[in-house]
Design brief:
With about 300 residues, this protein is mainly alpha-helical. It has one domain (about 1-300). It has helices at about 1-30, 30-55, 65-90, 95-100, 105-115, 120-140, 155-180, 185-210, 210-220, 220-250, 255-260, 265-275, 280-300. Helix 1 (about 1-30) packs antiparallel against helix 10 and helix 10 (about 220-250) packs antiparallel against helix 11 (about 255-260).
């Protein structure tokens, strides 16, 4: 039961972290890219300290192939995927953005069908349809603006596209990381490569667009840095460690993956408790429906 408890703990940490990032972004008026820059920098530092304490090194000794795959994973999943997620969160709110992010297994299944010739059966098709139906119900939810302070005035369509982009980024990053870890790379070594690679990608893109200096100036505030460090510790550092423990100690990978996909369910009461988003019957039904579809898709793949 340790693995299953760790999976639920990771899902809870991701939900809490998402709400923390939402509050930081609203309170400090930070763009998505700047928020992702602060998150990756704080998480990379935390894992570097862990690597130094646990293994006496910050840079892992890896072969060229897994190193390349992990770097690609960081660029796709962290540089692009997480920036899209923060953008979706600013427009749609935490709950809807997190639900869209959680649809990554659907894109993994679709990608397998398109490029790996893994033809889905009827149960998988039904599970994917269930996920999409639940997401559609939640995305089309009509919530008065006054009751959803987590949202900006951005167009909903853009928020949905960013949310889908975040799921695609997570799916691509996970697949690339899985290739590297299949060659015996530990979770800590993977994090020690992925996070710096993601951070470097953000720095390069921000520098090329002339946004690096303005973003850095916005971030360098003591109270803001403390908030970012705490959110990165809960949502990224603890979330990654608990998810790896879940995959390693659960009765099956499918069970762990299913429990890890319950973050949107945790986000519902958290949003209500933090007075960030109103909990409606439509949101509850759609979220439960989508999570049921994700569970069916993950369990059937096993």
């Amino acid at each position: 039961m340790i693995g299953e408890a760790a999976a639920l703990g990771a899902a809870f940490c991701w939900a809490v972290g998402s709400h923390l990032w939402g509050r930081i972004g609203r309170g400090a008026d930070l763009p998505a890219g700047a928020l992702n820059l602060g998150k990756c920098a704080a998480a990379a530092l935390a894992f570097a300290v862990t690597g130094l304490l646990v293994g006496g090194r910050v840079v892992p000794d890896l072969a060229a192939r897994p190193l390349a795959w992990l770097s690609v994973s960081g660029l796709i999943g962290l540089t692009l995927g997480d920036s899209a997620y923060f953008g979706a969160m600013a427009i749609l709110g935490v709950r809807r953005a997190l639900l869209l992010l959680s649809t990554a297994p659907v894109f993994v299944a679709i990608g397998g069908a398109l490029w790996l010739h893994e033809t889905p059966d009827r149960v998988q098709v039904a599970a994917i349809a269930t996920v999409l139906a639940g997401v559609t119900i939640v995305v089309n939810e009509q919530t008065p603006a006054a009751s959803a302070p987590g949202r900006s005035s951005g167009p909903v369509l853009l928020g949905v596209l960013l949310g889908v982009g975040s799921a695609l980024g997570q799916a691509g990053g996970s697949l690339a990381s899985r290739v590297a870890m299949g060659e015996g790379v530990s979770a800590l070594d993977a994090a020690l490569v992925r996070l710096p690679a993601g951070l470097l990608g953000i720095v390069v893109l921000a520098g090329a667009s002339g946004r690096l200096v303005p973003w850095t100036r916005k971030l360098v505030r003591p109270r803001l840095l403390a908030s970012i460090a705490f959110a990165a510790f809960v949502g990224t550092y603890l979330g990654i460690w608990l998810s790896q423990l879940a995959i390693g100690r659960s009765s099956s990978t499918a069970i762990a993956s299913t429990l890890l996909a319950t973050s949107p369910i945790f986000a519902l009461p958290l949003g209500r408790w933090l007075n960030a988003e109103r909990l409606t019957r439509q949101a509850l039904v759609g979220t439960l429906l989508a999570c049921a579809g994700l569970a069916g898709l993950t369990l059937w793949k096993s």
